[in-house]
Amino acid sequence: MKGMFEYLKKNVQVYIIIVPAIIYFFIFNYLPMLGLSLAFQDYKFSKGMFLSPWIGFRYFEAFFNYFNFWNIIKNTLVISFYKLILFFPIPIVFAIMLNEIRNKFFKQVLQTIFYMPYFISWVVAITIFQQFLSIDGIINQIRASFGYEAIYYMNDPFYFYPIMFISYVWKVTGWSAIIYLAAISGIDPELFEAAKVDGAGKLIQIWHITIPSLVPIAAVLFILSLSSLLHAGWEHVYLLRTPGNMNVSDILDTYVIQTGFSNGQIGYATAVSLFQSVIGLIFVIISNAIIKRKSEVSVF
After folding, report:
1. Of 100, 73, 76, 111, nearest in space to 209 by CA
2. Which of 9, 169, 207, 298 qualifies as a FRET site for 69, CA 20 to 30 Å off?
3. How confident is the prediction for the chain on average, in pLDDT?
């Protein structure tokens, strides 16, 4: 015990520095967890969280018996597949390509161009796509000039997933590539020099040096991303929803917003959100165990 106090006294300045971060996470990440109890209560605004009656797993039973349950789950998993699996290698490839550019000015210009969309809100981003893809948008004007009929892309369920994926790639790729660029910059330059001496070209160096060096950080990010398996991004999808594509764009996130805020069913929405988080946690634990068994990389 004496040794612990001596250690704390010796490093008191370090702990003082992290106190604001601890307070922040406690207030905004841990205290809100008390609200999870609403998933098991018949929440009444007049009685509050502590006096509302307990109803057990009634909300979960109602959700599992919801007529559109499987369609919502399917849509959520499909969109998550696009965002977590198909998108995953794109920032890695972009970071590698960007790292190979030797012209510093051109590299900085490209970085700025690809980072910029991330700082644009989804409202603005989807509005830009609507201007291109609406009935009187640029794409349909080009089609009309060749004698083709206009297509309402935003209302057609066939085009929903491509539009969703392209808009996501455009907005997020640059920002997601930053951590891989940082990892690449940390690779020992002597490895590349030794590879050059042995006659290895650029592709061989990327395949045998760059990519293996990125595997640990990529594995950790992939494990963490699985926590969002059932969180497909409500704002992005919500803004793309139209009456025509509702059958493929109705996901758990939009369902939570609809039931919780539009219908005022706070407890029911909390139960659905808790279901999302629990499934995400299970997938993180399973994927972490599998990857840890196959390699030395793990989150915990």
Report:
1. 100
2. 169
3. 89
Rounded CA separation 137/142 (Å): 9
CATH code, 240? 1.10.3720.10
Dump pLDDT digits (tens) for 129-166: 998 998 888 899 998 888 888 888 989 999 999 999 99
Domain coverage including residue 159: 41-294
- Predicted local distance difference test score (pLDDT) of residue 2: 63
* Residues 21 and 47 occupy one common structural domain: no
Statement to judge: residues 145 and 10 lie in one domain: no
C-alpha distances out from residue 82 to 69, 163, 292, Å: 20, 11, 25
- 46-50, 97-101, 251-255: lowest mean pLDDT where? 46-50
Structure tokens at 273: 């959100």
Same domain, 2 and 91: no
In eight-state DSSP terms, residue 54 is B
